[in-house]
Design a protein that fits this description.
The protein is an alpha/beta fold. The protein is built from ten helices and 13 strands. Strands 5, 6, 7, 8, 9, 10, 11, 12 and 13 form a nine-stranded mixed β-sheet that branches. A four-stranded antiparallel β-sheet has the order 2-3-1-4, with helices on one face.
Length: 301
């Protein structure tokens, strides 16, 4: 597989010998994965229905709701009633990690800052039994419409969609938890059919936006509470360096992610202890996840 010189040189410079694993992951034919929507069904029911349709599955070790299809693609699943009914959601394994790390609880006010198309928003709703109050922002109108559609089909209650750039939210808002799955270069999602376009100028502009979004997230987060920052990139510019910039300002600290809780995930080394970087392979996209806590004491409800 041929990849751009910029991508190849940058990853080789950042990861050294480990870059070979990333390049191999780009060339791998990725298996189709899905998430069970516990707002409407359970994992056993989905596995049985898929087996009845002749679809073999394997469950990710770190989540009963994360299913890997061993002998079928998305078109085979999209023909099943459970897909149309919103009992499942086609979602990459890596993108299921940030909502789990976020750890939202029922009755909490949660902000999803870049929510479309809604996989993580509806996952947060499912993980809280539909009892969290979620604000989902999306600045693009067409993507916001798609977000609303997926929220409705998944049966996710207590979700408010705001068709606006999260950076424009009033600082008077205050949230218990925030998920910032930041727009990025997509350097972790390169495949045989999608090589991506990479340049220093584009990366610099993207990093600037990510830092602005993270600064905003920290302002909107209640003292003593936590946020998750994630990207589908393996560039350290978009990951550890963005986090390091926030840490230097002194208002947040790292909450270490328990790597043992995500058994079986192919991991890349990170320059900030307690963060998680997923190496792309046949099951996972390249992804980065960090959890931060804002300084100050949390007020009891």
């Amino acid at each position: 597989m041929e990849i751009s010189a910029f991508l190849s040189e940058k990853l080789s410079a950042q990861y050294g010998d480990e870059a070979a694993r990333i390049f191999a992951g780009f060339s791998a034919r990725r298996l189709t994965t899905l998430r069970v929507n516990r707002l409407k069904t359970d994992a056993d029911s989905v596995r049985r229905a898929l087996a009845d349709a002749g679809i073999e599955t394997q469950t990710a070790a770190w989540s009963e709701d994360a299913l890997i299809l061993l002998n079928a693609k998305e078109d085979a699943v999209s023909a099943l009633p459970m897909f149309e009914n919103g009992e499942i959601y086609m979602q990459s394994l890596s993108s299921m990690i940030p909502p789990i790390v976020l750890g939202a609880k029922p009755e909490e006010n949660v902000l999803d800052m870049a929510a479309a198309p809604g996989g993580k928003t509806t996952q947060i709703a499912a993980l809280t039994g539909g009892r969290a109050m979620i604000t989902a922002c999306e600045r693009n109108k067409m993507r916001a419409d798609r977000l609303r559609y997926n929220i409705e089909r998944q049966g996710a209650p207590r979700v408010t969609v705001m068709n606006m750039d999260a950076r424009q939210l009033d600082d008077l808002f205050a949230f218990d938890r925030i998920l910032l799955d930041a727009p990025c270069s997509g350097s972790g999602t390169v495949t045989e059919g999608s090589h991506g376009q990479f340049s220093k100028d584009y990366l610099d502009r993207t990093v600037k936006m990510q830092k602005t979004l993270l600064d905003k997230a920290i302002r909107l987060l209640k003292p003593g509470h936590e946020l998750v920052y994630s990207t589908c990139s393996v560039f350290r510019d978009e990951n550890e360096e963005v986090i390091a910039s926030a840490l230097k300002k002194g208002s947040v600290s790292i909450v270490p992610i328990d790597g043992a809780a995500f058994d079986g995930i192919p991991k890349l080394p990170t320059t900030i202890e307690g963060t998680l970087c997923v190496c792309p392979d046949e099951r996972y996209e390249g992804f980065f996840v960090a959890k931060l806590k804002k300084a100050g004491k949390s007020k009891k409800k």
